[in-house]
UniProtKB/TrEMBL annotation:
UniProt entry keywords in alphabetical sequence: Copper, Electron transport, Heme, Iron, Membrane, Metal-binding, Respiratory chain, Signal, Translocase, Transmembrane, Transmembrane helix, Transport
Name of this chain's protein: Cytochrome c oxidase subunit 2
NCBIfam families recorded: CoxB
Residue intervals of the Cytochrome oxidase subunit II copper A binding domain: 118-230
Gene3D superfamilies, A to Z: 1.10.287.90, Cupredoxins - blue copper proteins (2.60.40.420)
Necessary cofactors: Cu cation
Amino acid sequence: MLRIVLSSLGLLLLGLALAQNDVQNVTVFDTSSPINREVSQLFWITMGFAALIFTVVFGALIYSIVKFRARGDEKGEPPQFHGNDRLEILWTLIPLGIVAVLFALTAKTLFAIGTPPEEGIEVQVTGYQFWWDFYYPEYDVRTSNELIIPVGRAVKFEVTSKDVIHSFWAPNLGGKIDAIPGVTTRTWFQAEEPGIYYGQCAELCGASHANMRFRVIAVPEEEFENFMRAARAYKAPEPVSPREERGQQIFAQSCASCHRVQGTAAQGTLGPDLSYFGNRTTLGAGVWPNKPEYLKPWIMNSTDVKPGSEMPAFPQLTEEDVEALVAYLDSLRLEGFDFSELPKR
Ligand code: HEC
Ligand SMILES: [Cu+2]
């Protein structure tokens, strides 16, 4: 009885988890990325050989079991054979050949995905407990938790960490490289379809490891260049309502020591860069949609919703204060860039 109850409960939870997952089709077999195309090709070839070997071995096994089974009143051991040179040479050479082919294909794949194309934009990725900083040195632009990239161009990453070991991974695109404090690791990938790709820290790094996510937003090249140009020139707009103005004041007092908003006195670097936060599709390192109903509890007490978050709680803020902050953060926008309607991949 207990077993039935427990297993139904497990199935129910699994169902809920799947239903709750807003992310579509997170897979390393996404062939719209050159790296994953190489890797999936190798995977299917290897699977093909494995299936062939499985069929031959099990076929021979089943055939022998049926064909040479004891029949009628046969008793004792059947006639014994010892050695068959031709057969033994054959079953050594064939596997050797298969291993050689797989070795060659694997080496080819490793070189193909390990060598970044000469052409490509550079991004410096820094992992923090529990969020990501992205800096584009060629454009002098910084974003956090959402990486904007151009479709059809390689993006080369220099990855490091400011605290513990993390791992940078956008499964549909490739990557997965450790972010190690004091060390720079390198990887690259390229998106061939526009969309919002899911990213996840892939190295257990503390209480909110599972909540250390990000998004890769791939847009047409022209839109990317426009975004970079606008982001580089960005200056936070002047508040247009008393509420935004109040939000700006509270931000300057309580938040500016950790967060940067380009074009203002807020230049903190302990937390994510919040310049053009209004353009963000997600919040809390890719965990929630960027909507007021999630932003308010986040500002009041982020550890309540994200265990281990390094952002302190603000119990002194009133409901009105928090709404003012939400209005202010939402006003920080680059006009003309709405990524929320891009397909999720
Ligand atoms: C002591 C430093 C510190 C202070 C002060 C601080 N924050 Fe944060 N904040 C952080 C850190 C660290 C994170 C990242 C937490 C995480 O995702 O694990 C963060 C994350 C955020 C995020 C989510 C950003 C994203 O990319 O998802 C918002 C929004 C935010 N803070 C707003 C505020 C506001 C508003 C205030 C002032 C009321 C404030 N913060 C004060 C450190 C701080
Ligand atoms: Cu991590």
